[in-house]
Amino acid sequence: MDFVLLIQAILIGIFCYLGSVSSPWLMGVSGGYYVVGRPLVAGLIVGLILGDITTGIILGVAVQAAFIATISTGGTQNSEITYAAYGGIALGILTKAEPGVTVTLSVGIGALGLILHNVMMVTNSAWNKRADRAAENGDARGIILNNAFYPQIVNFLLRVVPVALAIYFGQGFVTKALDVIPGDVTHIMNVLGGLLPALGIALLMNLLIKDKFQLIFFLAGFVIIAFIVQNMIALTVIASLIAYVIYLGAGSSTHTETEDEVI
Amino acid sequence: MKKLDKKDLRKGWMSWAMYHLSSMSFEKLEAHGFAHSMIPILNKLYKDNPEEYKKALKRHSVFYNTEPQSGSLVNGIVASLEEEKANGKEIDDEMFHSVKTGIMGPIAGIGDSTIQGIIIPILLTIGMGISSNGNPLGVFVYIIGYLAIILSLSYFLYFRGYHLGVNAVDGLIGANSERLRNAFSVLGTLVIGGLAASFVHLTTPLKIPNGDESIELQKTLDGFFPGLLSLLAVLFCWYLISKKKYSGTKVLLILVAFSIIGVLLNIF
Question: What's the sign of the alpha-carbon dihedral B151, B156, B158, B161?
Answer without folding.
Answer: negative
